TrEMBL record:
InterPro entries: Reg_prop, WD40/YVTN_repeat-like_dom_sf. The lineage of its organism: Bacteria, Pseudomonadati, Bacteroidota, Flavobacteriia, Flavobacteriales. Pfam families: Reg_prop (PF07494). It comes from the Bacteria. PROSITE patterns: PROKAR_LIPOPROTEIN. The keyword Protein biosynthesis does not apply. This is Diguanylate cyclase.
Length: 362
């Protein structure tokens, strides 16, 4: 694949996954009673294009499809929700949950809130009203709503507020490189909240923007954006491991941010996992999604090359195929019990059985 085709291919992908998990209390007697969901259509399987996975506090699973709505699994049955049930759009990009157990479903056209019985579309604040400054409140939720906005939507419990990013130092260089492109470089591919509650935003072509509650700062490196074949990958995955080190897009380096630092001026870049094969200098994997299991191993999902596990010493490869067809992956997710799940572009959902990934609901 030449450089232009590779660039267009990677920039056409949209990944999206923002995940918040919560632990159930130890005293089951005080847990709120789960109400049976009456709406939706019962189906036998989930869609083949699952781009987002989430398990709620009641242990139900939510699977978001590319453009065919939501599939809800309660451990026994699968229900299908679409715009017919009240979703704002069938193009699902992520799930979140608030302290009251409401599920927020991010789509290409807006955000739907589900209270257990009905869907409500979150209102967007009037853009002509006095602007909302950037703030960082623990209970706020953050959404992309598509991948072309110059900014991020913050939900304060009442309204969604579109907050625009400051100008990136890489903006002019991007437009010199792609003068006639229709690509919007500030478009968001991912949102990540680290352990301190700071927000990280991965853009299509300008690297990472981080918000610490006071300052918005940018960080860009060519090796984080450009694949070995020359394609512009965008910033699709950001993750803080158990040691507090950050991984961005690929395994070549990891980043140690010093206390009270801004991302672009005060961090230590360390060697990451390196090459897959030092002898042949095979390229390090670019991943669309990453998580950490309960033992501290890193798991990285790539689009075409399956899953890579890093146990602190070596990379272990898990090819994912259906019959003889390569499964194209979009997300990897750890559920409340530590079980790993995969969402794919062409083969539905896979679940890790302790040894390999097997198809869910064959």
């Amino acid at each position: 694949m030449n450089k232009i085709k590779t660039t267009l291919r990677y920039l056409s992908l949209i990944s999206f996954f923002a995940t918040f998990t919560s632990c159930n209390g130890q005293n089951k007697a005080i847990q709120p009673e789960e109400k049976k969901i009456e709406i939706g259509v019962t189906v036998a399987q989930v869609d083949q294009t699952i781009w987002a996975i989430y398990q709620d506090k009641q242990s139900n699973y939510w699977f978001g499809s590319k453009e065919n709505g939501v599939f809800y699994y309660d451990g026994q049955h699968v229900k299908h929700f679409t715009t017919k049930e009240g979703l704002v759009s069938n193009a699902i990009r992520g799930f979140q949950e608030d302290s009251e157990g409401h599920i927020y479903i991010e789509t290409e056209r807006g955000v739907s809130q589900f209270d257990g019985q009905t869907f409500k579309t979150l209102p967007i604040a009037n853009p002509d009203s006095p602007s909302n400054d950037w703030v960082l409140e623990p209970a706020d939720l953050w959404f992309r709503i598509g991948s072309t906005n110059n900014g991020v939507y913050r939900f304060d419990g009442t309204f969604l507020h579109l907050l625009k990013f400051p100008k990136s130092p890489e903006e002019e260089a991007f437009y010199r490189k792609y003068p006639n492109t229709g690509i919007r470089p500030y478009g968001l591919y991912t949102i990540y909240k680290d352990r301190k509650g700071l927000m990280w935003f991965g853009t299509a072509s300008l690297g990472v923007c981080r918000y610490d509650g006071k300052t918005l700062s940018w960080h860009y490196e060519e090796q984080l954006q450009t694949t070995p074949n020359g394609g512009d990958f965008g910033t699709r995955a950001i993750f803080e491991d158990k040691e507090g080190m950050f991984w961005i897009n690929n395994t070549r380096f990891r980043y140690n941010l010093k206390p009270n630092s801004t991302i672009n001026t005060d961090f230590q870049k360390e060697d990451g996992i390196g090459y897959l094969d030092e002898k042949n200098k095979k390229a390090f994997p670019f991943f669309l999604s990453i998580t950490e299991d309960n033992e501290g191993n890193l798991w990285m999902a790539t689009y075409e090359e399956g899953v890579w596990k890093y146990d602190g010493k070596e990379l272990i490869h898990y090819p994912i195929q259906e019959d003889k067809t390569t499964v194209l992956l979009f997300t990897i997710y750890k559920d409340n019990k530590g079980v790993l799940w995969l969402g794919s572009h062409n083969a539905g959902v896979y679940q890790f059985n302790g040894h390999s990934f097997e198809k869910f609901l064959k």
